[in-house]
Every structure is written in structure tokens, then in C-alpha cells.
Specification:
By secondary structure, the chain is an alpha/beta fold. It has 3 domains: about 60 residues; about 240 residues, Endonuclease Chain A (Endonuclease, Chain A, 2-Layer Sandwich), CATH 3.30.870; about 160 residues, Endonuclease, Chain A, CATH 3.30.870.10. Helix content is about 45%, strand content about 20%. The strands form 2 sheets. A 15-stranded mixed sheet has the order 4-3-2-5-6-8-1-9-16-15-14-10-11-12-17, sandwiched between helices. Strands 7-13 form a two-stranded parallel sheet. Helix 2 packs across helix 3. Belongs to the phospholipase D family. Cardiolipin synthase subfamily. ClsA sub-subfamily. Keywords: Cell inner membrane, Cell membrane, Lipid biosynthesis, Lipid metabolism, Membrane, Phospholipid biosynthesis, Phospholipid metabolism, Repeat, Transferase, Transmembrane, Transmembrane helix. It catalyses: 2 a 1,2-diacyl-sn-glycero-3-phospho-(1'-sn-glycerol) = a cardiolipin + glycerol. One of its GO terms (biological process) is cardiolipin biosynthetic process.
Length: about 475
């Protein structure tokens, strides 16, 4: 019996070190960033058992075998679909501005999606206005409604949206709703999913979370897009989840969430529709393609016509697309660069690009919320302040609530708005979407929004910053250690 237990002990020890050796080899073989690799190695060797569990569940971008197979089948088909979509030549601009041209070329070459003209575009800065407009459009829908959100939290005007959606489904509108399992956990515990399904709405819980799935799919890979598509003609996207700010996360005492949304009319809805189709296929295995735009009906050119490019990221889409696009936009800046983000944990490449822009003489401003809903992110982001401030970047802390809008404005000409935070999760992991607009008038509109944010913010003074207490510096460096994993 003693020999048996001795053998078992040695087998467990051998198995333990074998697993650590295998994980170490995977970390070294996979071409990940040096800070990320070092962080994982330190976690695994300092906290071996917890490190192994953490790496197996969070260490690699694994969508799950079934979804991964669907994603591999989906993208080649989508690339062909986008290519055929480009056949009506008057939907596509012949020339972009000098500032926007590199970014448009990158996106067209890497993801096969070109910028589309003939769109009307409206910025909506009030959550109340967004919800009212959405309720109106849902009630007027005649053919189809597709929605995808990270968070749908019942309460207030969010319930009015749900009632409008149910009413539309009952009068024959084909409705599909894709909600992230983790973000919308409260929604799936209410009566709303059953009410919607009974009305004929296809409600799908994206990337379900459970202990049984933890070793078969990465649990922190989330469906973070926010999109609404109506009748293949009207589209919404931006930073806002389907929530009423009066009822959302009141207990964390950061004030109301401040979001930025875009409402569009035109052929851009078709481009966004094929992205939604890809998300739906990855999750359900069903391929439901949007109708291609009727060139005679959908194309119109007015004084305020906008050329819009859509960038999609996530498993199944071109790798690192969002990160490369943001880098390209930052390097394109010549005079002024303004960034708003709720979570500032940039990659080393993006951090250096922003600092280099400032060194080149570009007027660089970053607007972040003073109070954040994530303690980890709040302290980790502060570790980047010194390098940014020393390069001449102005950092504003918004005091009017939790600034949740995500935008980049380059020289008041090139605008990026959408769902992407400047953190590792958005840049490398989640399903995200960003709009790129090459239009000076729209750039001026976005600049006014950002200036309004600045008017409600405090500017960090570098002299005061360098005099902060040492315990704060220690906390910043401690949380910075985990920044590649946030």
C-alpha cells in the first residue's frame, strides 16, 4: 500500500510539472506581447495551481470548437459577399481625404469592407434621446429588426423598447435579439425572454457562461457589440447598452453613464447587417443574410451625405483589426487628436504612438471619467499617466458622470466612434464594432461633443501628478502588472 501511495504521489508531481511545462511552452511559442507573456509566466510560477486554472480559462483566445468551426466557414463567405456588394459603383467614394486614406486602404485590404457613401448620419449624445428615437423606429418597422447588445437591463425606457419590439413582432415583423450571457445576466433572469419568444422574437443568449464550459471556451470572451438594424435601412451603433441610465448601476455611485450613439440611414445598414449575420451564424449555426441594397432606392446623395466605413473585430474576423486601425488613425494625425474612453489601458504600441504624436507637435487630449466602475482598471490606467503627461498629452478627468463614450477625432476630419475601449479586452479579444467617418462637418460635430466633455472635466497637472503619494504609486504599479490581462 505504501508503494501504491508513493507511486501516486510521484505521478501527481510529474503530472503537475508536466502541465506547467506544457503551458510554459505554449506561452513561449505563441507570439504574444512580452509583457503579457512575462505576466502569465510569473502568475503560473508564483501561484502555480491558480495560475494553471487562470491560464486554461483565460490565457488563450479560444471560442470553443463548434463556434470556431462556424467562424472559419463564415469569413471566406462574407469576404465574397462584400466583394459582390461593391458592384454598384456609385455606393463607393472615388477618393478619401489624405488623413483618412491610409485607414480606409488598410480596412479594405484586410477585411474586404470599403467605405460606403449615400448615408445620413446623426450623433445622439443623450441616452434619453437615443431610447426615444429607437422606440419610434422599432414601432415603425415593416420588415425586420435585428439587435445585439452586451447589456440589456430591464427598467425604465428599456422596458418601453421591449414592449415596442414585442408589438412589432406580433404584427409580423421578423425580430432577432442577440444578447451577451454575462452582460445581460439580469435580463435572462426576468420574464422578458419568455415574453419575447412567445411573441415570435428569436432571442439568443450569446456565449453562455457556466462552470461546465470554463475549460472548453474562454469565459471572458464577450459579445460587446451594440447594434440595431431596422428594415435593412436604419442602423444604430455606439457605446450605449440597452439600459435606462436612471436605473443602471446606481449602487456604484459614479453618476449616470454618458454615452454616444450614431443613428444612420442608408446602405451602411447592409454592411452592418452582414456583420450581424456573422455573429448570428457563429452563435446559432444558422446563416441568414441581409438583402443587398436596392441601388435605385437606397442610394441618395444630399448635401450632408456621409461616407462611412465599418470595422468589425472578434474571433472569425481579421486578427488585430481594431488595434491596427487605431494605430493608423493616431499616426495620421497632423494637428489635433482627441480621444474619449472609459477604460485607458493601451498596448505598448498604442501608448508609444500617442506619445509620438504629441512629440511630433500634435495637440493630443485624452478624456476619461474621474470615477470608474472598475477598481482594477482605475488603478491600472493611472500607471500610464506619467509617460503620457511627460510627452505633452493632456489628460482630462470627466466629472459629470461615468463617461462611457468611445471616440477618436483626428484633425476634425477623421472620426472613429463605436464600442471599443482602449484596453486589452477590446483591442484583442471581444466582438467589437467601430464606425469610421471621413467628413469634416461630422468631425466638427464630434469636436463640439468632446469640447462639452472637456468643459465638465478637470485637467491633470503634471506638477501635482509627480508629487502624488508613494502608496498610490505602489498601487498603480501593482495593478499595472495585471494590465495585459484586463
Amino acid at each position: 500500500m505504501e508503494t501504491f501511495f508513493t507511486t501516486i504521489s510521484w505521478l501527481l508531481i510529474f503530472g503537475y510539472w508536466f502541465v506547467i511545462a506544457v503551458i510554459t511552452c505554449r506561452i513561449l511559442i505563441k507570439r504574444r506581447s512580452v509583457p503579457s507573456a512575462i505576466t502569465w509566466l510569473l502568475i503560473i510560477y508564483i501561484l502555480p495551481l491558480l495560475g494553471i486554472i487562470a491560464y486554461l480559462s483565460l490565457g488563450e483566445l479560444y471560442l470553443g470548437q463548434c463556434r470556431a468551426q462556424r467562424a472559419r466557414r463564415m469569413w471566406p463567405f462574407m469576404a465574397v459577399w462584400f466583394k459582390t456588394l461593391q458592384s454598384p459603383p456609385n455606393l463607393y467614394p472615388t477618393k478619401n481625404s489624405d488623413i483618412a486614406q491610409p485607414l480606409f486602404q488598410l480596412c479594405e485590404n484586410r477585411q474586404g469592407i470599403a467605405g460606403v457613401k449615400g448615408n445620413q448620419l446623426q450623433l445622439i449624445t443623450s441616452s434619453d434621446d437615443t431610447l426615444r428615437a429607437l422606440i419610434h423606429d422599432v414601432r415603425k418597422a415593416s420588415h425586420n429588426i435585428e439587435m445585439v447588445f452586451y447589456i440589456w437591463q430591464p427598467g425604465g425606457q428599456a422596458d418601453e423598447v421591449a414592449e415596442a419590439l414585442i408589438s412589432s413582432a406580433r404584427r409580423g415583423v421578423y425580430c432577432r435579439l442577440l444578447l451577451d450571457s454575462a452582460g445581460s445576466v439580469e435580463f435572462f433572469r426576468t420574464v422578458w425572454p419568455n415574453r419575447m419568444r412567445n411573441a415570435g422574437i428569436d432571442v439568443v443568449e450569446a456565449l453562455p457562461v457556466s462552470l461546465l464550459r470554463i475549460f472548453f471556451r474562454r469565459m471572458d470572451l464577450r459579445q460587446h457589440r451594440k447594434m440595431v438594424l431596422i428594415d435593412n435601412y436604419i442602423a444604430y451603433t455606439g457605446s450605449m447598452n440597452l439600459v435606462d441610465p436612471l436605473f443602471f448601476k446606481k449602487h456604484i455611485n459614479v453618476g449616470q453613464w454618458i454615452d454616444l450613439m450614431a443613428r444612420m440611414e442608408g446602405p451602411i445598414a447592409t454592411t452592418m447587417g452582414i456583420i450581424y449575420s456573422g455573429d448570428w451564424e457563429i452563435e446559432t449555426g444558422k446563416r441568414i443574410l441581409p438583402l443587398k441594397p436596392d441601388n435605385n432606392v437606397m442610394f441618395f446623395e444630399k448635401k450632408n451625405d456621409h461616407t462611412i466605413l465599418v470595422i468589425a473585430s472578434g474571433p472569425g474576423f481579421p486578427e488585430n483589426m481594431i488595434h491596427q486601425a487605431i494605430l493608423t488613425a493616431v499616426f495620421s494625425a497632423r494637428r489635433k487628436l482627441i480621444i474619449t474612453t472609459p477604460y485607458l489601458i493601451p498596448s505598448d504600441d498604442l501608448l508609444h504612438a500617442i506619445c509620438i504624436a504629441s512629440y511630433r507637435g500634435v495637440d493630443v487630449s485624452i478624456i476619461i471619467p474621474l470615477h470608474n466602475d472598475s477598481l482594477l482598471v482605475r488603478w491600472a490606467s493611472r500607471a500610464f499617466f506619467s509617460e503620457l503627461l511627460e510627452s505633452g498629452v493632456k489628460i482630462y478627468q470627466f466629472e459629470g458622470g461615468l463617461l462611457h463614450s468611445k471616440s477618436i477625432l483626428v484633425d476634425e476630419q477623421l472620426s472613429l466612434i463605436g464600442t471599443v475601449n482602449l484596453d486589452m479586452r477590446s483591442l484583442w479579444l471581444n466582438f467589437e464594432i467601430t464606425l469610421v467617418i471621413d467628413n469634416h462637418q461630422f468631425g466638427k460635430d464630434l469636436a463640439r461633443v468632446q469640447e462639452n466633455y472637456i468643459s465638465q472635466s478637470r485637467l491633470i497637472d503634471i506638477n501635482c501628478w509627480v508629487q502624488r503619494s508613494y502608496w498610490k504609486r505602489i498601487l498603480e504599479r501593482l495593478f499595472y502588472f495585471f494590465s495585459p490581462l484586463l
